[in-house]
Design a protein that fits this description.
Elements lengths: L2 E6 L5 E7 L5 E5 L4 E6 L4 E4 L4 E4 L3 H11 L1
Antiparallel strand pairs: 1-2, 2-3, 3-4, 4-5, 5-6
């Protein structure tokens, strides 16, 4: 079962979402549910939308927060 976490800014506005599956893999989405990136637990790395490894570990929330500041 997938768990969805809503990411909000200081004012309570929705910036995006993070969905985590049963295996511990996460997918980051923006406000419009467009994919920003993915975390793979087996590889212990986060990839951006284009599949490039951008960090070791799970930084999917940073993808959502970073995207929110750009708008």
């Amino acid at each position: 079962m997938r768990q969805t976490q809503t990411i909000r800014d200081f004012y309570g506005r929705v910036l995006g979402y993070i969905e985590e599956d049963e295996q511990g893999n996460s997918t980051a989405y923006d406000f419009y549910r467009r994919i920003l990136g993915r975390y793979s637990k087996s590889l212990n790395s986060t990839q951006d939308f284009y599949g490039r490894v951008i960090a070791r570990g799970n930084i999917t929330s940073a993808l959502v927060y970073g995207q929110g500041k750009a708008s």
